[in-house]
Specification:
heterodimer; A: 143 residues; alpha+beta; Aldehyde Oxidoreductase, domain 3; 4-stranded mixed β-sheet; 4-stranded antiparallel β-sheet; 10 strands; 38% strand; globular; B: 99 residues; Ubiquitin-like (UB roll); 5-stranded mixed β-sheet; 3 helices; 5 strands
Chain lengths: 143, 99
């Protein structure tokens, strides 16, 4: 299992290599990348801040849940921090599984769950200012 | 059962001891509070809600943000009525936007 926060560009081939096991017949990857606009308003760059120790712990718990639920032996999850330019990957997931269905489902579960409860925040920078993106719908609740 | 008796010279029960917790602010809350952390002295038995009440003093916009904030004590999400202990790390977590 690879679970990490990094201030460097994500090494996607390394994540894929980690899950490319002989027993796996499919690898599903997901990249979240920096879009050049927020609902039409031009975005110059993004910044990501994390409560690092808790974010890594939550990411690990999500990956472990996915591995158990879909019976996987290899998952890699990496999230960027700091400033990112348009087109850079902010998050990368690689899931290896014997068959594709498990790989797709687990990958989808990991990104969807990460967005609801991992303490990481995105700041959108515009030509004339910046805002923290804090959708109330993503407010985590005690488990 | 053996009865334990207070020695006649015993002093009245001590006033509640104080506890100290470290509060962490992130994203828009760090901007609002002008800092990323603060040490808060509270009465023993104080809850997350008590800490929030203290933090709201002198920060007029803080209270209106609280309904949208989640809380973690020592990196685990908790409810607002959770009691705090000396040395706890209380993180105030605005709605998250990773990914």
């Amino acid at each position: 299992m690879i679970v990490e926060l990094t201030s460097e560009p994500i090494d996607v081939p390394r994540l894929i290599a980690h899950v490319n096991k002989p027993s796996n017949g499919g690898i599903c990857t997901f990249l979240g990348v920096v879009r050049d606009n927020a609902e039409g308003r031009p975005v110059v760059k993004l910044g990501y801040e994390a409560y690092e120790s808790m974010a890594v712990a939550q990411m690990r718990a999500i990956v472990q849940e996915a591995m158990q639920r879909w019976g996987l032996d290899a998952v890699a999850l990496s999230h960027r921090t700091g400033e990112l330019q348009i087109g850079e990957a902010s998050v990368a997931i690689a899931v290896g599984a014997p068959h594709r269905a498990e790989a797709f489902e687990a990958c989808r579960f990991i990104i969807d769950t990460l967005k609801t409860r991992v303490p990481i925040w995105k700041k959108e920078f515009f030509q004339d200012g910046a805002v923290w993106v804090e959708p109330v719908s993503s407010q985590p609740s005690p488990q | 059962m053996r009865e334990t008796k207070r020695p006649p010279t015993a002093e009245p029960p001590a006033a509640p001891a104080a506890i100290s917790v470290r509060v962490l602010f992130f994203a828009s809350l760090a901007d609002l509070m002008g800092d990323r952390h603060r040490n808060l002295d509270l009465t023993a038995g104080a809850t997350v809600s008590d800490a929030l009440r203290d933090l709201a003093q002198g920060a007029p916009d803080f209270a209106s943000r609280v309904p949208h904030v989640s809380f973690a004590v020592n990196e685990a999400f908790v409810a607002a009525d959770t009691p705090l202990a000396d040395g706890d790390e209380l993180a105030l977590i605005p709605p998250v936007s990773g990914g």
